[in-house]
Structure formats: C-alpha cells, structure tokens
Design brief:
4% strand; 54% helix; single chain; T4SS_VirB3/TrbD/AvhB; mainly alpha; Conjugal_tfr_TrbD; transmembrane helix; 2 strands
C-alpha cells in the first residue's frame, strides 16, 4: 500500500505567505489600521494627545496578544457577532 505522499503529483510546493495571516506590528492588519485611525482621531482631531497614545498602545497590545493566541481571532469574532443566540430565554 502506498500513501498519497508516495504517489507522484500529490505534493505541491506552497509558499509560506499563502498560509500566514497578514500582520502589521504583530497585530492583524485590519485591526491595526482601525486602531491607528481611532487613536489618530482622538490624538489629532480632538487634540487629546495622551489619551490617543494610551488608546493606541493598549489597543495594539491587545491585538498583538490576540494574534499570538489565535492568528484568526478577528475572523472568529466577526462570525461570532453574526450568529444568533442558540437559546432564546
């Protein structure tokens, strides 16, 4: 008996970039852009520099932590928001 990996044509080279998530500074790209935009709006638009920087640091740190735990945590969270509750009480 031969396995699928022994048969010719069942293995294809796959570039690593096709399987890894796109990260910016360790955080998912969409989260990093949204977090930076929100922090810039607070820091530049409202001229609250310190809260804007704190918001950016805390938000980015949480996004990096979430990406380390589960690289697809934002996709899972988005699906979670779309699901209806199982039991309506």
């Amino acid at each position: 008996m031969s396995t699928a990996s022994d048969l010719p044509g069942f293995e294809v080279p796959l570039h690593r970039s096709l399987t890894e998530p796109i990260l910016m500074g360790g955080a998912p790209r969409t989260v990093a852009i949204a977090n930076g935009t929100l922090a810039a709006a607070v820091g530049l638009g409202m001229q609250l520099w310190i809260p804007g920087v704190v918001l950016w640091i805390v938000g980015h740190s949480l996004a990096v932590w979430g990406a380390r735990v589960d690289p697809q945590f934002m996709q899972v969270f988005a699906k979670h928001l779309k699901h209806k509750p199982l039991l309506d009480v």
